[in-house]
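Progress note, project year one: complex with FE2/S2 (inorganic) cluster.
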Amino acid sequence: MSNENTLSRRGLFMKMGILFNGVVATALAVPVVRFLLSSITRGRANAYLSWVSVGSVNEFPEGETRLATFRNPYETPTDGKTVDTACWVRRVAGDQFQVFAVNCAHLGCPVRWFPQSGLFMCPCHGGAYYRDGSRASGPPERGLFEYPYKVENGLVTIQAGELPTPGSPTATLFGKKPPCAA
Ligand code: FES
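Model obtained:
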């Protein structure tokens, strides 16, 4: 075998190796780059957020808090029953509402409303919230998260698609008025 042949075969293997490494590096880089850009592209992803009804105004007596469910508009084929999402709806007066995520602001356990004591209680670590969602006691550092809502054609609708959390576009931390609740 001539020296020239060996060199060209070596060169071919080297080029194939470089090409293979390039393909693998690209395949590994795609999810990393998508993750790094997710905070920028997140705005466009908000397209899945949409207004969904949690029921007619008449279903919510003034001064009371009721459990309601809505169909999450951000649905994937594997969601099954979990696409039905619960929330607590408090009708303050007239068209003035508060719609709370059921998830505790501590670690996300579902909170329950106890009208007798006027408190939302979390079964996991004893977190408690007043009727307006503000923190009463326990480990949560803040009040319950609220969905933006509006009343239209006799229906209470909320902006759903993502659970309201500090980082989500629908987040309305307790104490801040939901932008569309005016
Ligand atoms: S999850 Fe509710 S108090 Fe911890």
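Confidence is low (pLDDT under 50) at residues 173-182.
The longest strand covers residues 84-93.
No further modelling is planned for this target in the current period.
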